[in-house]
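To whoever is on call:

I kicked off a structure prediction for a single chain this morning and the downstream step that reads the tokens threw a length-mismatch warning. I double-checked the sequence; it's 257 residues and nothing unusual in it as far as I can see. Pasting both halves so you can look.
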Amino acid sequence: MQESIHRLAKSSPRLKELRRRIRRRQRGEVLLDGRRLLLDALRWKIPIREIYLSESALRENPDLVFDEIPTFLIDEEVFRKLAPTRNSQGFLVFVEEPEFPVWRTAQGFGLYLEAVQDPLNVGAIIRSAAGFGAEAVWLSPGCADPFGPRAVRSSAGAVFRIGVEREVALEAALARARSGGCGVWATGADGMAVDEWAPADPLLLLLGSEGPGLSTAAMEGAEGLLSIELDRGIESLNVAVAAGVLLSRIRAILRPR
């Protein structure tokens, strides 16, 4: 065994502390669950604090052990019970929570998520926002933690590629948007068809929770509503899918290739 790896006994105080950190994220750190996210962290030069890995992961990935990074080996069965998601690939990695410049709203486009509680949807929306060139994603109180393990994995690491702000109240989001001259648009059943919409830069797009959608205050704070026309009696799309459709339209108009 490499000298830089420390094996954790089942009774280790560090293992007990690790369980607590997995259950409740600590300020300033993010847990990456899986080999792929570790490789992304290395490629994007994200500061890595600690690596925990299973015995099988060590056998299959001896090149992913680094003298300068504290690394701990965990019994296979214990690791399976620790991992916060299925198919973790034997790696739990703690990295520093990213910091990005605040989006000033004078140019570009961003998203505001209101009470989107499913971490998989939050992660998927952030992934689409980063991929389509948004400047930032703002999350209201009540949204899932974008830096929780499930959201991070759903985002495919995109939470480290775009500015993400938590606990942004609706009133503050609208005020910041207007101060930069942003147009504010929201999703709504009776809105303009997305295919007819010609978005202008700068822009803030409001998206609501999976069930109730946007609040009345959010819709009233927007200058217009948007709807996605569907066939076969389908009434609505998952919020992450809807975000992808709307972001694709925004980029097609604002940044044609």
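Update from on-call: the warning came from a stale cache, not from the record. Cleared it. Sanity check on the structure: The chain has two domains: 5-96, 109-254.
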